[in-house]
Each structure stands twice: as C-alpha cells, then as structure tokens.
Amino acid sequence: MIDPLTVALEFKGPNPGLYDLLDQLWIIDDDLYDKSATQPIGTGPFVLTDYRPGDKMVLKPFANYWNKGKPRLSEAEIRIIKDPQALLLNLESKTIDAIGQVNVPDAQRLERAGFAVETASEGILYNIMFNTKSGRFAGNTKLRQVFVHATDRQRFNRIALAGKARLLCLPWIPSNFAYDKALEATCDFDLAKAKTLLAEAGYPNGMNLTVYTSTQWYYGMTKLAEIVQSDLKQIGINIKLEDVETAEYTKRHNNLEYEAIMSLTGRVNRDPATMLNATSTMRAKDNAAGYDNPRFVTLVADASSTVDTTKRRQLFDEINKVIRTDMYTMPVATSPFLFGYNKKLQNIRFSVDGFVYLEDVTVK
C-alpha cells in the first residue's frame, strides 16, 4: 500500500487479464472487516439500514456517494425468498418488482404475463468433454468432430433454454475479441456429415457409448445429453446415459473416469486468456479432458503475457484453430443468467456476472 488511498499491484510480467482480477476485488472498511456480513461498508451507492437474516435487507441512498446525483431510488428492499415458485408468484402478483435469477423454464411464462426477462450474464457455457488421454476419443479428432455435427444446438436452445442462449462453436461470445465469425459457422448440424466422419474415425458400423451427466449438478445438462442421444442414434451411436449425483459426477469429471461427459465452462465473458488458464474444462495445462498439446500451451502462455492487442489477436487466431480442430471440450451454448422484472423499472444495467447496477434504476 502506497498511502491510505493508493494500492500498488505487482506482477511478474504483463497481465492482460488484470481487469478480471479487479472485477473480483471488493473494497471494504478494514476496521469493520470482521463484521462485513452484517455491517458492510464499501464504496457503493447505498447504505444498509435494516438487515433481517433469512428475510430481507433494506438499502437507503448514501448521501456522500462519489457519483453525484445517484442513486435515483429512494429505497431498495431485497427480500430473501428461497422457494423458486414462491419467488415467481411474488413477482406475478407484483408484491416484488424483480427477481434476480429466473429459472429458464419460467422465462416464457413471465414474458407472456407482460414482464421483461433479460439475459443478465453469459458467463457459463454448456460443453461436451471427451477423454483425450485414454479410450476411443484419445488421438481420434474425427470421432470428436462427429459430435460437433451431430449436436442440434438450436433444438437444445429451444427446448431447454427458452430460446435465450447463444449457440457457440468456440468458447467466445461476440463481444470477446477472440470471437471468430468464420469458424463459428463451421459447427453446422449435419447428420450426414457426422455419419461420414464416424466411418472415417474407424466406426463405420457405429458404436456403443456411455455418457455421464448430472441433473442434480446443473440444469440443462441432461436435456442436452438426451437430445444428443436421440440424434446420434440415427447414425449408429447408441448412448447409455448415466445421470449421477453431484459427488459421483465430480469424481468422474475431475479424474478422467469417463469417455464423454456433459460439462460446463465458466469465465466465458472474461478475457479469453482467463478461461484458458483458469477453467478445468478449457485450460491449456492440466485440464479435465486430459488434453496435452505443447504448441497450444505455448500459444496460450504467449497470449497471456502480452498486452499488445495486434499480437494477441494473431495468437488467438491460432488458438482458435487448435480448439476447433482438436475439440477436446466441445462448446454448445451459453447458460443464460436471466433477470425478470416489472417493466415500470427503467435503466436496468448489469455487471458481467449478472448483478444489477441499482444506482441507475428508476421507477416509471
């Protein structure tokens, strides 16, 4: 710490993911650190005036907030309603004005009733991950490519995600500089192409395969698995789905105890190097797919240690080609974090993680 108002952060080298780090850095009063759960003092637009554990908290404007003229609300009450259906009914009856996380199956119901439902964040990605260290997918990129063209992403989005997801071939959303529009167009749903690839992969007569998923772990994974199961059957791949509890799923996922497994990747809305260094499913080294490619590791290391925008774009052009070719973890679609609210609320904005910026909100 340089002085009471200045902190210096030191790194071993250039760090293009610095803003991802700062986004998770919360500034609080050091003297009240131990009481921050019940007496939080930070730099935000509100002060906590009433807190009832398990029930609600009431926020009032902070008179000395640094951003003059904000917040615009005279009060914000945050209620804790644990039952999802009770939460939904409270919004529909207009007892509350907004809910922070709409269950995907309820999105269309709220929209039909006249409420707004927005995608607050696209931070999580549905994947299918392959064991590239041992078994039939190891060293067989064509077998992995079968799944690329036999996965009906649009159907998954329509049936399981209320049409709110973003369909992806690579793990980047359009706002990310690593997004590659041309490569994104190469993951077309084409069962004829998938069947040809299956034969080229060495399985002209099809194959039997066990795929692991966990409904208990995360909504939508099993629905995706069922859709893939249905389509692959048409080209001769008979999938046995194992829908296991969270503990069993985690054990298999983290220890390569699978051939193919439904999976998730976070940090989708961060700097691309953050995902390729931090997430178990996509990181270049020591990933849960057992994928090991020295050239890929070097490309990611280089992209993580320069802030030269032109150089980073060139590196991610190469990184994207590797991901698209090897598909050790196959992106499918984002998992939308949905925010539902009464349309009388105006100026709704979200952080990259889907939190509402209350300082701008007004009531019409």
Explain what this protein looks like in three dimensions.
It is a single chain. The two termini are 44 Å apart. This protein has helices at 18-23, 84-92, 107-112, 141-149, 153-160, 181-184, 191-200, 221-233, 246-254, 272-278, 294-303, 309-326, and strands at residues 46-52, 56-61, 76-79, 98-102, 116-130, 207-213, 237-243, 260-265, 329-341, 345-346, 362-363. Helix content is 30%, strand content 20%. Helix 11 packs antiparallel against helix 12 (309-326). Strand 6, helix 8 and strand 7 form a beta-alpha-beta unit.
Features of the shown structure:
three-stranded antiparallel sheet, 364 residues, alpha+beta, D-Maltodextrin-Binding Protein, domain 2, 11 strands, Dipeptide-binding Protein, domain 3, 2 domains
SSE map:
Layout: H1 18-23, E1 46-52, E2 56-61, E3 76-79, H2 84-92, E4 98-102, H3 107-112, E5 116-130, H4 141-149, H5 153-160, H6 181-184, H7 191-200, E6 207-213, H8 221-233, E7 237-243, H9 246-254, E8 260-265, H10 272-278, H11 294-303, H12 309-326, E9 329-341, E10 345-346, E11 362-363
Parallel strand pairs: 6-7, 6-8
Antiparallel strand pairs: 1-2, 2-3, 4-9, 5-8, 5-9, 10-11
Q: Please report the number of helical segments.
A: 12
> Roughly how many Å is the radius of gyration?
23 Å
User: Structurally, how many domains make up the residues?
Assistant: 2
- Provide the low-confidence segments as ranges: none
Describe the biggest sheet? Answer: 6 strands, mixed
CATH architect. name of the largest domain: Roll
- What would you call the structural class? alpha+beta
Q: How would you spell out the order of helices and strands?
A: HEEEHEHEHHHHEHEHEHHHEEE
